[in-house]
Amino acid sequence: xxxxxxxxxxxxxxxxxxxxxxxxxxxxxxxxxxxxxxxxxxxxxxxxxxxxxxxxxxxxxxxxxxxxxxxxxxxxxxxxxxxxxxxxxxxxxxxxxxxxxxxxxxxxxxxxxxxxxxxxxxxxxxxxxxxxxxxxxxxxxxxxxxxxxxxxxxxxxxxxxxxxxxxxxxxxxxxxxxxxxxxxxxxxxxxxxxxxxxxxxxxxxxxxxxxxxxxxxxxxxxxxxxxxxxxxxxxxxxxxxxxxxxxxxxxxxxxxxxxxxxxxxxxxxxxxxxxxxxxxxxxxxxxxxxxxxxxxxxxxxxxxxxxxxxxxxxxxxxxxxxxxxxxxxxxxxxxxxxxxxxxxxxxxxxxxxxxxxxxxxxxxxxxxxxxxxxxxxxxxxxxxxxxxxxxxxxxxxxxxxxxxxxxxxxxxxxxxxxxxxxxxxxxxxxxxxxxxxx
Length: 438
Known about the structure:
Radius of gyration: 33 Å
Oligomer: single chain
CATH superfamily of the largest domain: Trigger factor ribosome-binding domain
Number of strands: 12
Distance between the termini: 65 Å
Number of domains: 5
CATH architecture of the largest domain: 2-Layer Sandwich
Low-confidence stretches: 432-438
Shape: extended
Mean pLDDT: 91
Largest sheet: 6 strands, antiparallel
Structural class: alpha+beta
């Protein structure tokens, strides 16, 4: 075996490895002994066919492919030892020729992270404020959620709920056809086509109307984008929204503990404040992490970004499956290919990989540790709200792999908390006070 180290760049080593004919022959012999035991060749008992017969039966390419599948990983490991290279993750192997057998290996090397003066990071938290207008807006939303709809004997206005029969077609093919459909007439609504709600305003009960509208160029169903459906609608019923009066009775309907409008406003204010504080906390942490990343110098092999992109795609796919759909249907609905989605996720994945590496280096520098009791406490907390299959969930969470994953999550959480304290100046102030007491 001959190994040539072509170059090293982007935290990757590029190797060309040429196999000796004797090494390839040895691997082919091993393949023969494996494959002959599984092959059912007419005229021969299983495991007794000569090698030449087996090669003709399976095809030389398949025979060689099996040999290389076993030979290449072993050769790659030997090449790493010879070149004194330590791979960070699995390599990319590519066979460039088979006579003689030559393959190339792109070896991802360990990332390099040089932290800046992260102890000097100072970030000012944004103040949390809940305005009276925001409280009023939420209460108004609650009134709409608890509104009733009553029939009215007038023409359709924006905000009404109409019952209508709708017939439509595009290029002679059915588009949307439904009787007794309920539709809220919202101004500038894009559904089912821009301008549809405007066409309904002014119509009266039992009135019919025909019109055409153009679908936008970014319409979710790409095959219909830019086309002009024709509509025929008939108003069956017109309903007006009746908002409940904002009084103590309305407050009590929302919860037995809310006895007055004043109590409702206080509850809404508290909820908005908690939500705002949580968002402010998350935003502050993100700014602190970005400040630490901005000071650091980070280099890593591109494969890490690809792995993160695939992880993000898998997460999205699982979410769609839980909702009864799949990623393919979602991509079709937004008129995008998986390649386009992959490209869009590239900067997000790059950012996440960079942040993860910096946080890992900070954790190492700060000697952040997590003990088994902390993992136990986290598992207990996760099981707290479980009602079904609690024993099975507990068993799954306690596997070595799950516990190790949880340990990494807790280390990251602790590291972020330490950076937050540094950014606020809390850690430095505590250390100054500690020194002053000595």
